[in-house]
Design goal:
Elements (H helix, E strand, L loop, with lengths): L2 H29 L2 H23 L6 H25 L4 H8 L2 H8 L10 H19 L8 H24 L6 H20 L11 H26 L4 H8 L2 H11 L7 H38 L5
Helix pairs in contact: 1-3, 1-4, 1-9, 1-10, 1-11, 2-3, 2-8, 2-9, 3-7, 3-8, 4-7, 4-11, 5-7, 6-12
Length: 308
């Protein structure tokens, strides 16, 4: 199999795994409390990451890795908390679609590598996404947004902040992805230890299916997905990677309906189509605008005379 084909398959697998995480998390919340899920997911992830770091026997954690990983661990924990509480009160399909708003929210917060404002077309694409969220929240008719949808909206906003922080804290620094992930998972475990302490006895009575969901969320949706994404992105273009990873909400809908038995009303189905279309449109516009800015900056550096 050609390397490019293998890389594409890995990225699609990552998107599929992330898309499936919403149904896995929702299924787990039926059996055990959210805080117990979050703590267990983090602990399993931390043990796996720390073991992988130890097995490599490389240099120890650097100060930058500990400092950046600690901050990112806090924002990542906030994202997962909002997502898990949110998916407990809405469908897995809706959760996966609403969280994809991160794609259009991130460029609004991140001005790195971009001069000037975003093109008007980008805001038109964002408007399509807002309309899509309205339709997803309406279900079978207009009503007050539910707690689950509002929590997923908050998760999308915090995830956008997290993505921007990742870029700002890692650009130009020699930070090893595995070490950075290990620090984040250890921080997350510490953050949820006290809040989840009273709920941990429930885990003793959890059945095999629930534990399977927890292990899947920790090892596949967290550790494997991140490392596989890092491996694949290094072997393809950023545009192609973002296009393939952007299929996450599609997989969330497919898995939620196909395996979870969820149903979309006509309005919700229209919202799903608009959400996917709007996020892809916005992503394409932002990527083209960023590429144009990079070219303009390169030309400006060449044509601008340097002082003697």
């Amino acid at each position: 199999m050609p390397d490019s084909r293998r890389t594409d398959l890995v990225l699609l697998l990552v998107a599929t795994v992330w898309g499936s995480s919403y149904l896995s998390a929702k299924t787990a919340t039926v059996a055990i409390p959210v805080l117990a899920i979050l703590f267990t997911r983090y602990v399993i992830s931390a043990l796996a990451c720390v073991a992988l770091v130890a097995a490599r026997r490389g240099p120890r954690y650097t100060r930058d890795e500990i400092r950046s990983g600690s901050l990112l661990g806090v924002t990542q924990a906030a994202v997962l908390a909002l997502e898990t509480y949110g998916v407990a009160h809405t469908s897995a399909a809706n959760a996966g679609l609403i969280i994809s708003l991160t794609i259009v929210l991130t460029p609004l917060l991140d001005r790195t590598g971009r001069r000037g404002g975003l093109p008007p077309r980008f805001f038109a694409a964002a408007g399509v996404c807002v309309l899509a969220v309205g339709l997803l929240m309406s279900g079978s008719g207009l009503h007050t947004p539910g707690a689950g949808e509002l929590l997923m909206l908050a998760a999308a906003a915090v995830r956008a902040v997290h993505v921007v922080l990742v870029g700002r804290l890692t650009t130009g620094r020699e930070l090893r992805p595995l070490h950075l992930t290990a620090v984040q998972t250890v921080v997350g475990s510490a953050l949820f230890l006290v809040p989840a302490a009273g709920q941990l006895p429930v885990l003793i009575h959890a059945d095999a299916m629930t534990w399977t969901q927890l292990v899947y969320l920790a090892l596949f949706c967290s550790v494997f997905a991140f490392l596989a994404q890092t491996w694949a992105v290094q072997r393809t273009s950023a545009s192609r990677a973002s296009l393939l990873l952007g299929t996450e909400p599609v997989w969330a809908v497919v898995i939620g309906i196909g395996l979870g038995g969820e149903r979309l009303t006509v309005l919700a189905a229209l919202g799903a189509v608009l959400m996917v279309a709007g996020t892809y449109w916005g992503q394409t516009i932002e990527r083209a605008h960023r590429a144009t800015t990079v070219k303009e900056n390169a030309v400006r550096r060449i044509t601008t005379p340097t002082s003697a």
